[in-house]
Structure formats: structure tokens, C-alpha cells
Specification:
Blueprint (H helix, E strand, L loop, with lengths): L2 H15 L5 H10 L8 H20 L7 H7 L2 H12 L3 E4 L2 E4 L5
Antiparallel strand pairs: 1-2
Helix pairs in contact: 1-5, 2-4
Length: 106
């Protein structure tokens, strides 16, 4: 995974680890994660689509899922951090004298 996508998942775990955020605050912060200054609207949409797809795959093994802000807010985000961190670790395996990353390589 590119470094910016790894940082996005780390930022997500930081956001959902903060207790006492309202659903509106969670939503605003999560949707802002993949956005960068100077992006066009289409670039923002593509970045958000990629970010959500990555997150769904880490959590559920699928490209789609529930609305993430609501999901994290309703399901105690701290429990979900463990899932993201566990699935997002670097895992290397030796295969024929080469190293390969896990599916996510985070």
C-alpha cells in the first residue's frame, strides 16, 4: 500500500479512538481523511471511494459495507481499532527467498 493510504487508516484509528465524539463529528472527520488541499471534486470523490473501499476490505473483506461513521459511532470504535490494527500490521512471509507483504501490507 502507498504510504498515504497507510496514514489514512492510522488517522481513522486515531479518530475512532477518541470517545465522546458526536455522530456528526465522527462523520465530518472520517469523510475529511482522504481529502487533500487542491483536489478537484472528482479527485476528492475518487480518494474517498478508495479510502472507504480499503477500510471495508480491512474490516469486512468486502468492497462495500455500512456507513462507516455510523458503524464506528454505534459499535464502540475502540473495539474496531483492534480489528484495523490487527489486520493492518506488516506481515512478511518468506517465499522462495523473496519477501511478500500480506494482502494489505500496512
Amino acid at each position: 500500500w502507498p504510504e498515504d493510504r497507510r496514514i489514512q487508516i492510522k488517522t481513522l484509528t486515531d479518530i475512532i479512538s477518541r470517545n465522546k465524539l458526536s455522530i456528526e463529528e465522527v462523520e465530518t472527520e472520517i469523510y475529511a481523511i482522504p481529502k487533500k488541499e487542491g483536489m478537484t471534486d472528482n479527485e476528492k470523490k475518487l480518494a474517498q471511494r478508495t479510502f472507504f473501499k480499503d477500510t471495508y476490505n480491512l474490516l469486512f473483506g468486502k468492497d462495500q459495507g455500512p456507513r462507516l461513521p455510523t458503524y464506528f459511532w454505534a459499535n464502540e470504535g475502540n473495539k474496531q481499532i483492534k480489528n484495523l490494527n490487527k489486520k493492518g500490521e506488516f506481515i512478511y512471509e518468506r517465499v522462495d527467498n523473496t519477501r511478500r507483504k500480506s494482502l494489505w501490507g500496512i
